[in-house]
Amino acid sequence: MLWNANYVKVMIANFALYFAFYILTPLLPLYLSDQFGATKDTIGIVLSGYTWAALLIRPFSGFIVDCFDRRKALLTFFFLFFLFFAGYIAASTLLMFAIVRTVHGAPFGALTVANQTVAIDVLPSERRNEGMGYYGLSNNLAMAIAPSVAIYIYQMTADFSILFWIALFVAGAGMAVDMTVKVPKKEIVRNKPRLSLDRFFLTKAWMLAVNIAFFSFCFGALSNYLAIYSKEEMGITGGTGTYFLILSVGLVVSRLQGAEGLRKGRLTQNAAGGICLSLVGYVLFVALNNAWGYYLSAVLIGLGNGHMYPAFLNMFISVARNNQRGTASSSILTAWDLGFGFGILVGGVVAELFGYQAAFWTVAAVNAAGVALFFAVTRSFYQARALANKK
To answer: How many helices (H) and strands (E) does the chain have?
Structure first.
């Protein structure tokens, strides 16, 4: 049964952890600018630290999830993720905030790997492609709701500390839900003769990892600089929450649309359609400097990413062995973090030197390069390895 109790609980917990993440993400650049007077490039450095910490921990978290008790690992990571939200409340200087934000990325990175791997475990094998597509809806719903809630609360109160407390509470609720999940006993890798790179990163999927990093670069820059770009370049202050809401509706719709394709194994077709839609969206975002281009880009980027990401996730899973589920989960998330972090960092530097318009043209160019790479190399790369894995 696809919608079993454990699968639903894991989705609820995933919604909670991403809600806690997204309720802070769009407003942190404004917080750092207003509270500490941080410059654009400094904001980029501070915010990218979270992603770099998640990036560093994810290969090891995949190994831990595959080689040790998954439930214990999951709850340990969730507790640490929950605990660090208190650090934002306590941080009184930019340096303290930067340290807390950076270190917080580690439990987030490990938790997302563990929760996603448990979701794979509790799904029936014949419904796994479809189920992992639906699993991402919990991320998307969090992205739809959390930024809008954050912006509404901030406009009403002008108090960031309220948002930090809400994030802490929601993370705690998600941890409580995950504590009730019954994780089935799976094969644990033991007594392996040596630790190979393949235990930490799914080497058979290296080109998939490179390609998805191009797309996460774009999303990293967009999600972190949208609010401040909208305010400074377009004079839109109340529309950022609406933008994320529209984008997330696109994500939800595309995941529902793409479920049948995933169930039938049409992974490369779903990915190809998604990345082309996203490319059009990113170009419109920066080329049409008006409300029409602004909100239409949200629809297209949402639809595009909603088709692209679950297709790539299932491609990673398809080329992995059954005892490499944690490694497959950590590998795609590591690749996503790598691109996401570079997107934040490069976006901040380009914005400081040349302005936000140039930063988002850079985003469009990187997305176009990712699309070209997929059609020229990645599609055939995956098809050859998926076929070999079935033999």
So the answer is: 14, 0
